[in-house]
Specification:
The chain is of the alpha+beta class. It is built from 5 helices and 7 strands. It has a 7-stranded mixed beta sheet with strand order 1-2-3-4-5-7-6, with helices on both faces. Helix 1 packs antiparallel against helix 2. The two termini are 28 Å apart. The structure holds coenzyme A. The site of coenzyme A (COA) has 20 residues, from helix 1, strand 4, helix 4 and helix 5.
């Protein structure tokens, strides 16, 4: 299936939120409590949070099917390692999953990171998110660390850190 990718301007970030509002609660309904889902949605997708991320250099790329928003990838510089890019978000509407579009999204993120001169691409994924881990493994990401990051309110993100080394 042919989809297109478009890097968003600051005044278009609501399009990401529109997709997130659908896919995020579905993705985590069997992994996180409804309270933690609501808390994290606000923490990551509140307009002021996304605007600040944009100002700090994080880029939001919309995935479209015939001009309809169906997913998004979000990336930036990795805080911990100067030579690494970080894939902050990679989400696709449920009805579009399992068709190879996730792999196209990951290949697009890899291309952006390479183009920007990074040596590797890192991401965090919830340890119970088997579908995403499978897609990441399929595209050459390997687990390099296990982390339990506190995010406030007594909540944690129980993640794997995964990395793909980029060929020059
Ligand atoms: C992570 C995510 C983007 C990956 O997308 P995906 O569509 O599941 O992954 P892929 O594109 O690699 O799809 C591969 C599947 O499509 C199938 N497929 C069908 N047609 C295909 C084609 N033309 N090309 C490639 N794969 C195809 C593959 O066989 C494979 O099936 P399998 O998983 O049963 O083996 C997606 O699952 C998602 O948005 N999940 C919810 C959000 C989420 O968890 N995000 C990550 C948070 S860290």
């Amino acid at each position: 299936m042919e989809v297109s990718f478009r890097i968003l301007q600051k005044d278009e970030l609501h399009l990401v939120r529109q997709v997130a509002d659908v896919v995020w609660p579905i993705t985590f309904r069997e992994i996180l409590s409804p309270e933690q889902i609501a808390y994290m949605m606000k923490m990551m997708y509140a307009p002021e949070v996304m605007d600040k991320e944009f100002d700090e250099g994080i880029r939001f790329c919309l995935v479209e099917d015939d001009a309809n928003p169906i997913g998004y990838i979000v990336w930036g510089q990795c805080d911990e390692v100067a030579t690494a890019a970080k894939l902050h978000k990679c989400y696709l509407l449920p009805e579009y999953q399992g068709k190879g579009i996730g792999t196209q999204m990951l290949q697009q993120a890899i291309a952006y990171a390479k183009e920007a001169g990074y040596k590797s691409l890192r991401l965090n994924v919830n340890r119970h998110n088997a579908k995403a881990i499978k897609a990441y493994n399929r595209n050459g990401f390997q687990t390099i660390q296990t982390v339990d990051n506190p995010i406030g309110n007594g909540y944690f993100m129980n993640d794997f850190v995964m990395e793909k080394i980029l060929d020059s």
